[in-house]
């Protein structure tokens, strides 16, 4: 069974939001709802100010607090590492929303806290998730972490990488290439 | 007016109507009719739920003083406290039921339980607690002291388990440092004692006025005075807990925790914190009770009324201070200083309706059952009080 992960090179992100739009279209979401978003950081002072952009979404944690707190196992970790949701089991307590340190959950019209599921149908068809395949700058490289020859592993070997909010013990599956 | 049955029926009816309108609005419009968001997912109904179940736990704990620990002066409380405990728990369930997106999926708690989830345990433990409470009440009504005491002990254990676990629902949230840790479980139990004593003093004062029997008037005013003394103790404990929560929050700058405390002290929650939580909830009742003549029933009643309002706001503060500080997964990202939240009319309605429901059910209970408690004399378990014997003869 594959172990999926995502490598993000945020320094290449132009902030075009194509990933967010692709996500919304693929998941047929309401207006302005998306499972991945961009966070902006201002660095420095004018005239030497720069804007850094960091794409953010569900990290498909290996120790997902959202699944730990879910009373009915509606949120669960698949063998391939995707953190998924069985909406029939969800009672709508929103405990996963309060438990996620990344604010990754979005309540849908049926009052189910939804999130990125890494487009499982696309993966089955051998494609990349909608956000990754849409990004013009190849900011998002999706792949198999357990395959030493995978693109993602090769690229990770070439760069220093970091992860977000590791201090909460979530063990995220998304890596970020460190900016120079 | 306050001593008139009809007045209370009218009040509860009006509140229930308001509640029904709010509940309908939430059922039809879902989350849109609530003041929550993706960033502040738990709304006022969570605070309302906590308020009701804290009341239930508090009533059971105070009832146990007489009924389980044989503190004579609190023995007459048992039936009313246990009835109140059942009713407030049921109202809490209604409030949380409306907060849940799909309450009917609760059935999966049985078929697909996650033993690591504090909400799973919350469902299970409060379920057990409710069943035990009902048994305790049945045996109390039968004046079967042996069995009712046995169930009283079980209720006490389950109340502490269920309620401290409710604290852990918050305390387990590693992502929200305002809540993380064992503090919540301990604080919930101790503040439940204050809720219980205040609610009982409030109830008992009114019952002793509405029931114009001489027994009840004498007994009622005695109990209310004793409850006032208990309140001083529990208010002091609550002050103690609040002071240390604030000091440990201000000290250092733990992200989330420090900002949450500052939201209370000098941010958007400060008015409600100082005026209601501290003023109504602690300082005013403490002053009313500790100034000379403070344990006169009317004074205790006033202190209890202030404390109950303060305790309600305390729950609101607790729920929102934990969520309104934005999480910062990307350090330095541009974020609002505070996340927005509101309490919508539908949410006010549901909480008001639950209070109305509690009043109505309680009035019906007073009507249906004899809630005077027989004295617990050793070896005389079957002996009923004079009032019960007279009632039976009649
Ligand atoms: S990022 Fe949030 S929603 Fe995604 S697996 Fe981790 S805790 Fe769950």
Automatic annotation (TrEMBL), chain A:
PROSITE patterns: 4FE4S_FER_1 (PS00198), 4FE4S_FER_2 (PS51379). Pfam families: Fer4_11. GO terms for molecular function: 4 iron, 4 sulfur cluster binding; metal ion binding. It comes from Salipaludibacillus aurantiacus. The lineage of its organism: Bacteria, Bacillati, Bacillota, Bacilli, Bacillales. CDD domains: PsrB (cd10551). This is Fe-S-cluster-containing dehydrogenase component. PANTHER family: PROTEIN NRFC, PROTEIN NRFC HOMOLOG. It comes from the Bacteria.
From TrEMBL, chain B:
It is a multi-pass membrane protein. Residues 375-394 are annotated as: Disordered. The chain crosses the membrane at residues 7-28, 40-69, 81-98, 118-141, 153-174, 186-207, 227-251, 271-289, 301-325, 345-363. It comes from the Bacteria. Keywords: Cell membrane, Membrane, Transmembrane, Transmembrane helix. InterPro entries: Electron_transfer_protein, NrfD-like. This is Prokaryotic molybdopterin-containing oxidoreductase family, membrane subunit. One of its GO terms (cellular component) is plasma membrane. Belongs to the NrfD family. It is found in: Cell membrane.
